[in-house]
Amino acid sequence: MAQDSHKDSYEDGMKVRRRVLGDAWVDRSLANRNDFNAEIGRQITSHVWGDIWTRPAIDLKTRRFMTLSIMIALRAWAEFRLHVRSGLATGDLVHMRELRVSGAILSGRSLVRVGNTQLSGLLRRIRRNRSRPVAAC
């Protein structure tokens, strides 16, 4: 039974991961798995995406904003950019602006300035490469 539950967590995690991050990003990530990183990738997909992101009390958009807020506070800019890209693919730019305002108060203005710089730079790159889908950046 526990093994079936683990399998379901991985499969559920993969579904939500693809929905949030996009097929192109997930496919690229899977193509980069190797003997060294495969186990941690499976654990992240099962536990983070399958057990946490699938919990019904909080919708995916709210979870994305929670994640972005935490990434600002942690200064985890690569993860921040990943979730911004996937958020833009779903049309969340207005909400991203609101996140910036809240982040200024909650995380400190200096961190939000860096987050704003990261977001502005990413938007400039996306505008230059409009022919490419946002989630595939």
- List how many beta strands DSSP finds: 0
CATH class (first level) name of the largest domain: Mainly Alpha
Largest sheet: none
Output the helix-strand order: HHHHHHH
Question: Would you tell me the overall average pLDDT?
Answer: 83
What is the second-level CATH architecture of the largest domain? Up-down Bundle
Radius of gyration: 16 Å
**What is the first-to-last residue Cα distance?**
39 Å
Contiguous runs where pLDDT drops below 50 for at least 5 residues: none
List the domain count as a whole number. Answer: 2
Shape: globular
Estimated share of beta-strand residues: under 5%
Which fold name fills CATH's third level, the topology of the largest domain?
A: AhpD-like
What is the helix fraction of residues, given as a range?
Answer: over 70%
Total of DSSP H or I helical runs spanning 4+ residues: 7
**Structural class based on helices, strands and sheet pairing:** mainly alpha
Structure description:
The chain is mainly alpha-helical and 137 residues long. The protein has 2 domains: 57 residues, no CATH class; 80 residues, AhpD-like (Up-down Bundle). It is 77% helix and 0% strand. It has 7 helices and no strands. The model has no long low-confidence stretch (mean pLDDT 83).
Note the topology:
Layout: H1 2-21, H2 23-31, H3 38-52, H4 60-74, H5 77-89, H6 93-106, H7 109-128
Brief descriptors of the model:
globular; AhpD-like; 7 helices; single chain; mainly alpha; 0% strand; 137 residues
Short recap of the structure:
With 137 residues, this protein is mostly helical. It has helices at residues 2-21, 23-31, 38-52, 60-74, 77-89, 93-106, 109-128.
